[in-house]
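Please decode residue identities from the backbone states below.
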């Protein structure tokens, strides 16, 4: 199992530079500490594609419960209150 972490702390963003605000994405396999910011999330029927400044992740959703996917979409919409990234539904 590999961890991909999307992290946002809006209460602290007011003290950050404009370029540092938004959702930070990290992967446990990365060796550097450079921030990789979320740019876009695409939801397909059985796939979600996460696009950052420097990476792209294609995640298989076939074994994920539809209700869990629905909750994730809702959470991501709340996380995107200032439109820092794009959420797309692809058919």
């Amino acid at each position: 199992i590999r961890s991909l972490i999307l992290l946002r702390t809006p209460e602290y963003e007011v003290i950050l530079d404009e370029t540092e605000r938004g959702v930070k994405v990290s992967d446990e396999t990365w060796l550097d500490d450079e921030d990789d910011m979320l740019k876009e999330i695409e939801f397909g029927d059985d796939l979600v594609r996460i696009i950052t400044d420097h990476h792209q992740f294609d995640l298989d959703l076939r074994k994920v419960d539809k209700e869990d996917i629905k909750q994730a979409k809702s959470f991501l919409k709340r996380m995107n209150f200032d439109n820092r990234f794009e959420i797309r539904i692809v058919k």
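Observation: The first strand starts at residue 4 and ends at 7.
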